[in-house]
Design a protein that fits this description.
single chain, about 120 residues, mainly beta, 4-stranded mixed sheet, 4-stranded antiparallel sheet
């Protein structure tokens, strides 16, 4: 019997990438667990496409990350969902068939979001 879930996935992430489709992993500080990160391909408008930051178990200390896939090859921008229009935006280049990685603390501004 299949079990339905309406909440976020707690299991491993499966990536369907290849050809011109890649993935992005955004490592974050633990304080962002549960926050939602929005993504777009500029110059497209922000349309609400997002994923949540989750605690990811590892053999060592856990990491906190948002995982986006599949994504078209090319430049993407990320921001906290609900951010002010002038909030810092994180940039990442996605390569087809690969997983691109960035760290939110490199550029991300967790103080730049509106209260939800």
């Amino acid at each position: 019997m299949a079990q339905e879930t309406n909440g976020p996935s707690e299991g491993p992430v499966v990536l369907d990438i290849g050809g011109s489709m890649g993935a992005a992993v955004v490592l974050t500080p633990p304080e962002l667990e549960g926050s939602e990160i929005e993504i777009r391909r500029p110059p497209a408008a922000w349309d609400g496409t997002h994923v949540a930051v989750r605690k990811r178990p590892t053999p060592g200390p856990p990491i906190y990350a948002a995982v986006f896939a599949p994504l078209h090859h090319g430049a993407h921008q990320l921001r906290l969902r609900g951010a002010r229009p002038d909030a810092t935006v994180l940039h990442i280049d996605v390569a087809g068939g690969e997983v691109s990685e960035t760290t939110w603390s490199d550029q991300g501004d967790i103080s730049g979001r509106y209260p939800l």
